[in-house]
Amino acid sequence: MSLARIPCTIVTGFLGAGKTTLIRHMLQNPGGRRLAVIVNEFGDVGMDAEILRGCGAEACHEAGIIELANGCICCTVADDFVPALDALLALDPKPDHILIETSGLALPKPLVQAFHWPAIKGRVTVDGVVAVVDGAALSEGRVAADPAALAAQRAADPSLDHEDPVEEVFEDQIACADLVVMTKADLLDAKALARAHAAIAEAMPRAVNVVNSAQGQLDPGVMLGLQVAAEADIENRRTHHDGELDHDHDDFYTVVMELPEAADPAALAARVASACRVTGVLRAKGFCRVAGKSMRLLVQAVGQRVSHHYDRAWEPAEARRGRLVVIGLKGFDQAAVAKALAG
């Protein structure tokens, strides 16, 4: 008798849409499930994995959260994804459900297709693909919080018409989704909510449910247990890149900046906001030590929206280094970002 396959939920979404916050809420409210997480970062420092480990819940244990930082997960299936699944499936007890957070730049369809690999098929299944979208940006007619970055990309590439790479990523994520979670709904009035939902409907090639979320809060029963087996339904997920054998992320670049000790979190947030005004910068997130505080300060920014809070205490043996991951369009001015952060 064959063993039941462990369900996996692929959580995709654009930079800063709120994927990590949503997954952190799931870990804190697992609904009786043993959850494990694979986090696919785009860059050298695993900020999202650290945010999840700092959630303070039992489900955030070290062995159950695996970070893949060697590039797009769908491009490194054999080298990274299969060993990560092997490690999680070797846990005793095994997880009941695995959450896979893709990079904000990832195309989810190639990852769904990877579930047909002989080393994967038969052990796990795609319970569903969840696309997380930024309601505040969509209500203003944008897929991201920083329209200047999109305008810079259009200006730099004369071959672009009404679409650019960031919009295509957004549309491909929506096209592959079994559920769309619209975050930041608490920031919107009724008219703005209607505009955001209309934008999702326009990008949606097939009927799927759209649910609102505020501050990452969502009943796990809504997102987990969809039982779609998306890998068996791959032909119904038509995307911009269906005719391509490969894809890359040459339009994007990630850099890690050191953050010195901060005397005032609000002043630090202002400097991060200034850095995000540099043309081409899309997203920033990281940690900082604050003078006189034993807690680690988490800073996240999308466009001009900057949030910060103390997420956990520094570990006794932990190096209290402040670092900020900055993600933007290829060629953004790193010196200008560093100058803005220095104040």
Question: What would you say this structure looks like, in words?
Answer:
- The chain has 343 residues and is of the alpha/beta class.
- It folds into 2 domains: 231 residues, Rossmann fold (3-Layer(aba) Sandwich); 91 residues, 2-Layer Sandwich (Hypothetical Protein Yjia, Chain: A,domain 2).
- It is built from 11 helices and 12 strands.
- It has a 7-stranded parallel β-sheet with strand order 3-2-4-1-5-6-7, sandwiched between helices. The protein has a 5-stranded antiparallel β-sheet with strand order 8-12-9-10-11, with helices on one face.
- It is globular.
What is the fold's blueprint, element by element?
Layout: E1 6-13, H1 19-28, E2 35-40, H2 47-53, E3 65-68, H3 77-89, E4 97-101, H4 108-114, E5 124-134, H5 135-139, H6 147-156, H7 165-175, E6 179-183, H8 190-203, E7 209-212, H9 220-223, E8 252-259, H10 265-276, E9 281-289, E10 295-302, E11 305-313, E12 322-329, H11 334-342
Parallel strand pairs: 1-4, 1-5, 2-3, 2-4, 5-6, 6-7
Antiparallel strand pairs: 8-12, 9-10, 9-12, 10-11
Helix pairs in contact: 1-2, 10-11
